[in-house]
Amino acid sequence: MEARKRNMNKHPDKIRLPLGVAVLAVVLFVLGGVVATEPSKPTENITSLIVQGTSFEAVTAAVENVGGEITHGLAIIDAVAAELTPTQIASVEERADVRIYGNPTVEVTGRRGGGKKGGKGNEPDTFFSKMVDGDLVQAEGFTGRGVTVAVLDTGLELKISLNNNSLGDYRVVGHYDAIANEELSYTGSDENGHGTHVAAVIANSSKGASSGQFNGMAPDVELVMVRAFDADGRGNYADVIRGLEWVRDNRVAMGIRVLNLSFSAPPQSHYWDDPLNQAVMRLWQEGVVVVASAGNSGPDPMTIGVPGNVPYVITVGAVTDSYTPDDPSDDRLTSFSSAGPTVEGFVKPEIVAPGGHVLNIMGWDTIASEHPEFHDSQDHFTMSGTSQAAAVVSGAVALLLEAEPWMTPDQVKSRLMATARPAVNPDGTLAYSVFQQGAGVVNAYDAVWNLGQGENCENDCDGNGPSANQGLDIDLDVAGVLHYGGRADQHPDGTYYLRGLEGDGYLWSDGYLWSDGYLWSDGYLWSDGYLWSDGFLWSDGYLWSDAQVSGYLWSDAFSWADGFLWSDGFLWSDTAAVPASTNVWVDQE
Prior knowledge:
29 strands, about 20% strand, globular, alpha+beta, about 20% helix, disordered C terminus
């Protein structure tokens, strides 16, 4: 479809902040023995904001010219984070080439424990790798060697099986504290525990005492840890974006191929007009495979968080084995896993992975001390969340890239989707909608050996299978020239569906069927799976039947092209800290 320019407004959305409360300063002086007081001038409130412009240099000058204090240089998105008064904000707003955003709260997606307590013993067995056939890949010699995975989270503890690979070689090649803005020595720390647990799911090089199998998906990867969240598992946009910029700047020197983002925040704008998403898109554009958690705000539709709502990246939902890892017949989607579609009409998540009661390494940190019932009093903690599911997929990507290091992010995404195993009913129909399970459960073995795609290679194959994100141009998207919508739409009766695809699996009316009567099929080929990512330009006629969906007002005038200044009144009008989606999972998933 031909894109139509949206009418631009010289001034972007105004951010109205309350004036500061006047503070009376008591000044004592003596006049004929009389003590007098006089009020001081009112003190203005100071707010932390993200200011974006046409270039990093231009926006830096714009903030400095009004006397604002720059706290973060965010060149990756031509922006800075700054502390500004209402008067300074008003001055900056007068510039037509500047965009002002809030600096919202972001929270890790798996913040508390969930499930049964971990077993005693120095090296208990984990099961998630076996559930996705990662153990079979390891048995054939692929362990992630030569691939660097970056984890942006709460940090990394000093644990032998995390700091060293299976051969005992030190493998943490970088550690950056985005909060303090400093590179750390290789003796990092993790006061929260979430980052350690996520990294362990990816890279734990220990072996289970009973199974003899590795307790991490890719035990020989090299690790880069970026700390952007505090001891409570909370961070803000500015720190996270600074961490993303550091990954971008060091990706070549450290060989970073995969980035795990196990956190989520509520969307406040379209995907392209979110500064955190903009940084994530630039990393994908630079060749980094970004794996993001879907969020823990399910089971309702349209609950995918930032940055999982970026159409390009691999967004992961969570399944559970219902405490029977050797019996897949009762595996199911977790009740907390966020579901699609996104407000722009994209199918999310793309795939799902084990994320219920996942056991792995964590010291006696904030999470463990608050929930000792899920800690084994030694080194292991059981946690549920799409954080853990994303980590499983990041490990699977590392295995795939060791086997085929030339693959692009789009090809990796397509391979994972085409070889995933969806939940199907006995008659072969989908047991869950694509808006709930995407293409299905990731299967590391099939992905590495390219099983499931057969001869289906329509374009952009290069010997590695078709590329995902067809119909989308990330270069134009990042440049602000064109933006895209997906195939999802909504019937007047409230049912979500995919245009051009038929069948019960492509329809969803909020109904979650937690039945046991389906299988994770290995014979259901997604010959059109990568086609749901097809994008089209925002244009007249793209209508949602609801007047308001998740707080966004829709009309028939969404034609996004050329530029980054939007006049929509719902974008970033609140600069207060925005609470992240609830991440307390202590139910028996």
